[in-house]
Amino acid sequence: MDAPISLSVASGHHISTFSLTPTSLLVSRTGDKKWPQIETDVYNVIWAELTDNNVLEISLLARKKKSAPLSFVQINVNLHDKDKVAANAFTDALMSAAYTGVKRQRRLKVLVNPKSGPGNAVQHYIKQVEPIFRAARCLIDTTFTTHVKHGLDIAKELPLDDFDVVVTVSGDGLVHEVLNGFAAHADPTRAFRTPLTPVPSGSGNGLAVNLLGVQDGYDVAAAALNAVKGLPMSVDLFSVTQKDRRVFSFMSQVVGLLADLDLRTERLRFMGSNRFILGYLHGVIVKRRCPVKLSIKVAEADKHRMVHNLHNSRSKTTLRSPRAEPPSPDSGPATSKSPLPPMSPLPPLSLPSATLPELQHTDADADGWIAFDKPLVYMYAGKGPYVSRDLMQFPVSLPDDGLIDIVIQEMTSRRVLLHGMEVAHKGEQYWLESQRYLKAQAYRVEPYSKKGCLAVDGEAYPFEAFQVEVHQGLATLLSPCGFYKVEFDFPGKKKGAP
């Protein structure tokens, strides 16, 4: 579509005008006091059709102003018979543009955690998320979790042929459960290929912020739309092994101050993400040394080169035009057994279908490992730039580079630690001299004290020796753009400057 397509219809004393461009939909409606003018991206159009009763129905998301969250808007216009042909042609063009390369009417397995974060997940789902799913004519199977590891149990037994996407309405903890349920599935490799996407309703919501960006990372409407239209994106997972136990991590492993502030502020969940700020301030005052020895199989340690690699990766992903996914042979509504078409063929995993990847880095004394035994405040390792809206911990993280980003905060003054908190929402603590930043294939932590905390994806684990290694592209998320929606650059460089 090159030239705009327009439709103008009169209903009573009111006129509704619609104009479709290659990238946006413009709506003008006389008599509509709440939404007289709408301009929204075509991606935000949820559904459009002409009913048997001659009613033009268009469901979409729009913003009242640029900085506002997305709002669900339902437009219904009664048509005269003379307008039916033009209206049908317009809705066909609008749906084709809105769902370019994306399967319609996805089959969603939805998990809602009523106790997540501040406790508003159920309200989010009923009032904002479910109406969007129903407007998109999705087939929905919803479970409200009732106990710890309920999500793991469901994912472990999930009938993979019945669903296109798993949606978690919760914080990052339920994502952790689902992924470990996939690992315990009878066909784990295929389970990990089932796209997973979060609707932010927890305290941190780091994964949602990484996928949707800072503005929309806490917007449940934007997250619901991603479940309806997002495209599959491969992402690395980590094996975390302790003694004979193995769990999978998607976001982070933390020891020291930042683990303490996460796990020891659980009673303050009602405060949302503010509990992390309170916990950090307490930790800075105490400034307790983290009692661990680190061994790391380092792949990259040059901060400037890592920023260059981030920009190069983003350029290549953008050039691939992730929204231009090849359409399926049937461009109409999907049947209940239609598979979810990929953004582009996901790379095959080099392991049998019903097995988990073998551990490759079991000897921390082998060549290529370095030891770090200087005094440190915390060690934070993971994937994805943001771990919460106020903390861009891994600003140069890439979804599937096969590496884990490791931040080591050496012992330093309280002034430096407070400055790090002040600029953490932009990731600028990355440039602190006292903060080591490495990319690694694996690492090992050995505590020399029994007093301490270990958090894996925000969940408490025993403070004992553990080892982590990366499995490249093992899991699948949904993304609107094919990369982490986060901006990061060299100090002092203006946004958009060459």
UniProtKB/TrEMBL annotation:
Amino acid composition bias (Pro residues), ranges on this chain: 339-350
Organism ancestry: Eukaryota, Fungi, Dikarya, Basidiomycota, Agaricomycotina
Protein's name in the database: Sphingoid long chain base kinase 4
Keyword Transferase appears in the UniProt entry: yes
Alphabetized UniProt keyword annotations: Kinase, Transferase
UniProt region (Disordered), positions on chain: 307-355
Domain DAGKc: 103-244
Pfam families: DAGK_cat, DUF7493
Bilayer-spanning residue ranges: none
PROSITE patterns: DAGK
